[in-house]
Predict the structure.
Amino acid sequence: MRLLKTALVAGALAVLSATTIASAYAQDTKIGFIVKQPEEPWFQDEWKFADQAAKEKGFTLVKIGAEDGEKLMSAIDNLGAQGAQGFVVCTPDVKLGPGIVAKAAANNLKLMTVDDRLVGADGKPLEDVPHMGISATKIGEAVGQAIIDQMKARGWKMDEVGAIRVSYDQLPTAVDRVEGAISVLKAAGFKAENIFDAPQAKTDTEAALNAATVVLNAHADIKKWIAFGLNDEAVLGAVRASESVGIPADGMIGVGIGGAESAINEFKKPTATGFVGTVIISPKRHGYETALNMYDWIANNKEPAKLTLTAGALAKRDDYQKVRKDLGIE
């Protein structure tokens, strides 16, 4: 009996010791999460969900905003100096790929990307770097189909409609999204000559508003418009531009991407606007899961999948709460 008690105590101490060691290791684990536009709701949400993973596992999350390449390289050095073991990044410029990989290696940091995939000097993805992104073309196609469905519901004739392609072509993801939408529009019979490019200087609402206003003023004879772009902010900018030139809500169909707070606030307005929908891409997976994957890589030597693509779901004014709940956002 005494031997049995001794064995039980020893076993309990061993479990307690292992738990204590694991807890101590987690506390010593430090992971960076670098984003290109920290003021945007999407990235705020990614950080929020990454924080959840940090609290669950007990590691330290270091959140850094890096709006340009210089700030990004400095941030990586800073993480190295802090004793971090790895980081997740959405880079301000995908062409910085080789430099980011080299800087991470120089600081002995594991590297994973989110949202925007790094490319090499040849413009091809750096496939050795684990990445969680979005099936940009498929999401763009969902936007295009949502617009087609809205035009049919309103009884619009496509020949009378103008399309604002709010573009940010220096970002491959942006190109894939808008071209996905355009492919569906053209397949449905929308004329290519009725699609007008509105290049934005930045990926925010103000830049999109300025770009779309130029298009609307140049084609004042067109009274019915559709709009699509990289994200919700791009489309909201086009909607605000249409309002500024006197186009009513029933003369605009804008479908965004992201399901950001800005889109939800638009749905909450007492009167419907020309922003009719958004294809929600859940920041929960992009924040929580990437942070968790990085922790498992550091703590358990379990490298993340080289490529994970997430999908989206169309949400409108009358069902956005249900869609968000189904995606685990609410």
